[in-house]
Design a protein that fits this description.
Strand content: 15-25%
Low-confidence stretches: 29-35
Largest sheet: 6 strands, mixed
Oligomer: single chain
Helix content: 25-40%
Structural class: alpha/beta
Order of helices and strands: HEEEHEEEHHHH
Shape: globular
Distance between the termini: 22 Å
Radius of gyration: 19 Å
């Protein structure tokens, strides 16, 4: 909850302070045997659906629609969507954090309508995923507002450097060296020590 709160504040330029306000809603194989997402939570009447990608995936809006649809069913629960009373749902917000090696802009939007077989001027259904490139030198302001995301980006960058220095030979060795370095520099230190 603390990490979700910190990331939400960074993305939305807000300053919420109470992690107990965060209501986690991640999909795992317990909710659906075939659908699983990275992070989803409700805060400030918004349902944030956040994904991480190390490769460029133009299908993120389609995937996000699937995630949202599964979650929407749970939010509606037993409420009457056929009645005269409007059933309110959290406002969905979609973000993708990219740290792959393929060059990408600092930020850009991916739209569900890009996947439509037929292009129309005003799509009747749209979903927009905001993509944040979190590679070294990108989105410094965002990473400055979210220390754990900045540290994650530093860790991945260090893994890549160790792997390159090793002639791209042994990724496991590069990860081990990066973990040792990051623990020594207190970059994700507690997490890496616990989950090594």
């Amino acid at each position: 909850r603390e990490n979700a709160l910190q990331l939400y504040n960074a993305v939305n330029r807000s300053d919420y302070a109470d992690p107990d306000m965060v209501e986690l809603h991640n999909l795992d194989r317990g909710v659906s045997l075939s659908v699983r997402n990275d992070a989803a939570f409700v805060l400030d009447l918004s349902l944030s659906i956040y994904e991480h990608q190390s490769t460029v995936c133009p299908n993120m809006p389609v995937r996000s629609l699937v995630y949202f649809s599964v979650m929407l069913k749970a939010f509606i629960g037993g409420r009457n969507i056929y009645g005269r009373t409007l059933v309110r749902i959290p406002t969905p917000r979609f973000a993708v954090f990219y740290n792959g090696e393929e060059e990408q802009p600092e930020q850009y939007d991916m739209k569900l309508s890009d996947a439509f077989e037929k292009t129309i001027a005003r799509p009747e259904l749209e979903l927009v995923c905001r993509v944040y490139n979190i590679n070294n030198g990108k989105n410094g302001e965002l990473l400055g507002r979210c220390p754990w995301l900045r540290e994650y980006a530093l860790f991945v960058d260090h893994v890549r450097r160790c792997h390159k220095e090793n002639g791209y030979d042994n990724l496991g060795d590069a990860i081990g060296r990066a973990i040792d370095h990051c623990i020594g520099e207190n970059i994700l230190g507690g997490f890496l020590t616990k989950h090594r």
